[in-house]
Design a protein that fits this description.
It is a single chain. By secondary structure, the chain is of the alpha+beta class. The protein has a domain of 56 residues. 51% of the residues lie in helices and 12% in strands. It contains four helices and two strands; from the N terminus they run E-E-H-H-H-H. A two-stranded antiparallel sheet has the order 1-2. Strand 1 and strand 2 form a beta hairpin.
Length: 83
């Protein structure tokens, strides 16, 4: 979950994650990759593509988040630009 400011206080926001049902049953690796891709995309979108803030919200290092976005083919620049 990402934090956002609301009336000077941080407020937790929830990300709704949907996994496509057209390819079930997914194997474990595909399912976890699809979930992680959706989750990280949601958090990054809520924080306008700010990797530093997203890594803080997720309690992971910035480098770990960068490696995951690369591995999962998440276009952070597009998220930053609102695409």
């Amino acid at each position: 979950m990402a934090n956002s400011k609301h009336n000077g206080r941080k407020k937790k926001q929830k990300c709704a994650i949907r996994i496509s049902q057209t390819t079930f049953p997914l194997d474990y690796r595909e399912a976890t990759s699809e979930f992680l891709r959706a989750y990280l995309t949601c958090v990054l979108t809520e924080l306008d593509g700010n990797v530093t803030e997203a890594s803080r919200a997720l309690c992971v290092s910035r480098r770990t988040l960068q490696l995951q976005t690369t591995k999962l083919d998440i276009d952070v620049a597009a998220i930053r630009n609102g695409k």
